[in-house]
Amino acid sequence: MDLKQIAYQYAKSKVLNDFIEYGGVAAAIRTAAGNVYTGISIDTACSMGFCAEHSAVAEMLKHGESVIQAVVAVDNDGNAVPPCGRCRELMSQLSRENLKAIVEVKNGIFKNLGEILPYDWKVDLGREW
């Protein structure tokens, strides 16, 4: 099963209550070790939620991994959606290797994380992270 299909299994928007809706976006990350971690978005009335990519990153870190090979996020219809700037930055800070990670930014369009994170401020620091 490919990453998009794995993510789509979880992309089912659900309303929890008047303040929270979740699962409108789901993400799947394949690590350099070949493991797949998933996550869902949580949207709240006062913007305290988080993106599906953040949720998948947390799962990955929980299992001691930080190097991403590929990532995709999908909406309720199974369409690939690009990661927001906050998610791009989070993934890039986990490992310099993640700048090479393949991201499906739109159905059938793939870029590496470095391409969609131009003018990376960390590169100019001249130190490893």
Along the chain, the helix and strand elements come as HEEEHEEHEE
Reported for the largest beta sheet, the result is: 7 strands, mixed
CA gyration radius, whole angstroms = 14 Å
Q: Give the end-to-end Cα distance, rounded to a whole number of Å.
A: 33 Å
Name the structural class.
Answer: alpha+beta
Strand segment tally: 7
Helix coverage percent: 10-25%
Question: How many alpha or pi helices?
Answer: 3
Q: How much of the polypeptide forms β-strand, as a percent range?
A: 25-35%
**Morphology call:** globular
> Spans with pLDDT under 50 lasting ≥5 residues?
none
Look at the structure and give the mean pLDDT: 94
Task: Give a brief outline of the structure.
This is Cytidine deaminase. This protein is an alpha+beta fold and 129 residues long.
Structure description:
By secondary structure, this protein is an alpha+beta fold. It has three helices and seven strands; from the N terminus they run H-E-E-E-H-E-E-H-E-E. Strands 1, 2, 3, 4, 5, 6 and 7 form a seven-stranded mixed beta sheet that branches. Strand 2 and strand 3 form a beta hairpin. It is globular and about 45 Å long. The mean pLDDT is 94.
